[in-house]
């Protein structure tokens, strides 16, 4: 019976003509954004927080609670330093996070206030890390450094994604403009 099947297949087989192989030149271009692995500096972290706090004060005319606001800013700065030291937070992640925060600001300035500043900044940085890292640090590790529950970090990231409608990709030109602005300010 196997011989019958084999004979039938051989009788039914069709001559196959192979198409000629066309060799195309492959050219590799260097990506426009270089992920150089440079650790975020104190100055870069401070600049991001300072720019946001000035924007909040101007937009919301926050005169009340100036002492409380400066304490919140100082606490946030220390938290960012702790995250940077624990997870080697990169410049590219901070700049990407800044771009996400800028987009949120353009959508709705009420989404970034002194009361929401820490969760927006940390949420944006965690999300930026996820977008650019080969090995993603889990929420529980971010939370451990901050002394929080991992579900809080998850919630903050989800809020950022919601506000931005999941539009978190940064174009090379946009990145370059923001990076150059931060470099000039330092």
Total discrete domains: 1
Number of strands: 0
Radius of gyration over C-alpha positions, nearest whole angstrom: 25 Å
Task: Sketch the major β-sheet.
Answer: none
Q: What's the helix-strand series?
A: HHHHHHHH
Question: Kindly, what is the distance between the CA atoms of the first and last residues, rounded to a whole number of angstroms?
Answer: 83 Å
CATH architecture: Orthogonal Bundle
What percent strand? under 5%
The count of helical stretches stands at: 8
Shape type? globular
Rounded mean pLDDT score: 82
Helix share bin: 55-70%
Structural class: mainly alpha
User: Spans with pLDDT under 50 lasting ≥5 residues?
Assistant: 26-35
CATH superfamily: Cyclin-like
- CATH class equals Mainly Alpha
- The CATH topology is given as Cyclin A, domain 1
Q: Could you provide a short overview of the structure?
A:
The protein has eight helices and no strands.
Description:
By secondary structure, the chain is mostly helical. It has a single domain, classed as Cyclin-like (Cyclin A, domain 1), CATH 1.10.472.10. The protein is 65% helix and 0% strand. The protein contains eight helices and no strands. Helix 4 crosses helix 8. The protein starts with a helix and ends with a helix. About 5% of the residues have low confidence.
